[in-house]
Write a structure and sequence with these properties.
The protein is of the alpha/beta class. It has ten helices and six strands. The protein has helices spanning about 5-10, 35-55, 65-85, 100-110, 140-145, 175-185, 195-200, 200-210, 245-260, 280-295; strands at about 90, 115-120, 165-170, 190, 220-225, 265-270. A six-stranded parallel sheet has the order 1-6-5-2-3-4, with helices on both faces. The chain is globular, with a radius of gyration of 18 Å. It binds 3-{[(E)-amino(hydroxyimino)methyl]amino}alanine and manganese (II) ion (3 copies).
Length: about 300
Amino acid sequence: PVPKDLAAEKGVSLKGGEKTLVREDPTSPADPDRTVGSQDEAAGAKVLEYVQRLPDPPIGNMKKPRLVSSVCEKLSEVVKGYAERGVMPVTLGGDHSLAMGTIAGSMAAYPEACVIWIDAHADINTPLTTDTGNLHGCPVSFLLGLEGTDVAPFNGWVKPCLKPERLVYIGLRDVDPAEKRILRENNIKCFTMHDVDKYGIGKVVQMALAHVNPRGERPVHLSFDVDATDPSVAASTGTPVRGGLTFREGHYICEAIAETGCLVALDIMEVNPTLGSENAVEQTVAVGCSLARAALGETLL
Ligand code: DIR
Ligand code: MN
Ligand code: MN
Ligand code: MN
């Protein structure tokens, strides 16, 4: 369950309901709502299976736009459903384009939420600026509603839901020229690896939180791309970049956010078990799980 004070403050209620936030464990057999998520997930799996079989030629530069859009739309509904019930959605992925869905879902349940994006990359290309056409390089631009993002199939469901001042990055070290321009023009706060070296991770996280959540009253969505960590820490990922966060720096970020008591949603992204040696896969999966546990407060006393 999300922190009680946050949940109570939002006063979220179930659809059509007199019932307010479920604070107990919603997976308990006594809870009549326990199947809601799994029904959604089953439907989501069917959507994925169906859409994967459809031809999905590029639209402009975007690769697999229909597949990505359908999966993210379904995911946003599942995440929103959990968040509205006061349960913390933890999404383990997977392509970071999925954050379009998870953050859309979080923002629907908690419009005042802020986003902390941990990544080697800014993932803020638009359909007009992307060179690779990979949508995992673009999710942030859709959430912000930047120029060029009002395109099918995404404009069928993604609405601009995130303000640039509610977003902060940590770990950046591979940002495209067009992305740098977008970050500058929108005045988005970024802590690169240079800043981590300069200030240390403790100060960086403190400054990042002071930027997006100065009074500690906003719900926090943490979107953690494992490629933010160094390839020696998490190698089985699609676009590794040397010079990343250490194992401890990655965990420190998660712990410090857990400590705020404001975390309402978590993504651990870009763990790809089809890449790298068996050892690399085992280590990357273990690191992903460990980061998730740290964000949920496991390592705090
Ligand atoms: C590059 C790489 N900026 C792109 N981005 C990655 O494809 O748009 N993002 N790898 O995760
Ligand atoms: Mn990413
Ligand atoms: Mn990345
Ligand atoms: Mn990526």
